[in-house]
Predict the 3D structure of the following.
Amino acid sequence: MKILMTGNEALARGAWEAGVRFASAYPGTPSTEILENLLTYDGIYAEWAPNEKVALEAACGAAVGGVRAVSAMKHVGVNVAADPLFTFAYTGVNAGMVLVTADEPGMHSSQNEQDNRNYAHMAKIPLLEPSNSQECLDMMKIAFVISEEFDTPVLIRTTTRVAHSKSLVTLSDRIEIEPKPYEKNVRKFLPIPAFAVGLRVKVEERMARLKEYSETTPLNYIEKGGKIGVITSGMCYNYAKEVFGEDATYLKLGFTKPRPNRLLDEFYKQVDPSKVYVIEENDPYLLDWVKRSGYSPIAIEPPYGEKTPDVLRAAIFGESNPEITVAVDDVPNRPPVLCAGCPHRGFFVEIAKRKNTVVAGDIGCYTLGFAPPFNAVDYVICMGSAFSAGHGTQVALDQAGADKRVVAVMGDSTFFHTGMNSLVEVLYNKSRVICVILDNRITGMTGQQEHPGTGKSAYGDPAPEIDIAAVCRALGAEHVTVINPNDLSQVKNALDEAYDREVASVIITRYPCVLKPMGEAEFEEFGKDLYKNKYEVNETACIGCKACIRVGCPAISMSNDRAIIDNACVGCSVCEQICPVKAIKIQ
């Protein structure tokens, strides 16, 4: 049977067909849908982990225990998971283990453009790069065979276009793989230096065998065409085919660590050596290999962004296909904004008023606090960094004699990800940073996934709900305040008290995301009218001062010098509290 699938859906299907029994991940675009789809298959236990490191560790543990396991994350997540990855590359597996990294050339929803093919090179593990959904399914299945045959974890690298594009996929039945017996073997799985020295030698022996495999695997092949040569992998193969068509001969690489030198030599015999292009996104991973092999291919500039067909045409032929154009003046500017009713809005309305304040931000919806009308967040480093980075900034400002206070902001899922360690840094070192946890009761930015503080598992079943305030107190925080962020007086009072202290404070703004599927627990805690009210403007009373506009709510606009509120309103009441003439009331 053939059906249309995205690459992420096909990766999940491939894991199921391969007999995978364990899956763990942390949500992050463009990888999120892999685990979301794994949750729909019988025979696989799947879970959201607090962060990528523990997700990979759990998958490694499952593989040691004897069942095929997979872990998935976006490219920056592998930075967090690198510690177990590099060690597991030494120990090898019992049952197969595959890690999926979803890279993002073009940075559509990411803070950098790193190329995780380099992780395969550094960790000395095999690397597979699918170029469409069928290859996603097939390579996932092959990856487990490679993992077990060569006693190694395997890295599958996709990119945004592979992960989210749809193509036809042929489905097969699941292969039931019985769990392998677990046998204690400390020389293999306990890498103290005395044992790791021997494991290091085995890694090199394994790479030599994998090198030979790269020459014969059907994942790498020459596609005969014209005298122009194209060396490529992943989605870039499709881009190149659109530009060159049958005028080129392609060295299509699906297995790219190690790379096939004999196949490369054979490819060069079939093309004009002066017209060989290496087409890849981000780092010169393939380009450098071809050059080290003694050839002089042509690189495609620039060395960043996506190598879409238009980019290739412009770089190679100096021209692009005609575009459909519109008058820019007729297109309204639509920058990203916090949703109508977003519970983060009340905090940013208040913090934007504070003078002599530096706001350290983090990764999440609330990063939008940097933008107008708030202009509040000063900088962001990485997931879970706000408190520890804020601490460093506060120390630096104090040393410089600057009369400034640091407020550090992160979300609830981020707190569980790596924010707890960040808070320990603040508390242990007696910082005076004001730490704010914007608890919207869900992992909001990636599409409403559960986390340890929501009270539900990845399957939606009841799970222990870890109390953020209790965790903060257990870590040593003496001043912990939980507030409703839609009540601006509560926000102001909590911040006033925190600014008056010369020690660290923790403020938790607790209110559910407006997009979160609400259940009985939410209505019981936050009221039966949760997101059910709507507000309207008394046009006679409105003086057109635009105070309500400055809360940045997309449900509010101006017409004939008067404010109007449309049906996007969900009744958070922030605008009502802001209006100086009380012209805004519940419908």
In short: DSSP finds 20 helices and 24 strands in the chain. The first helix runs from residue 7 to 17. The mean pLDDT is 96.
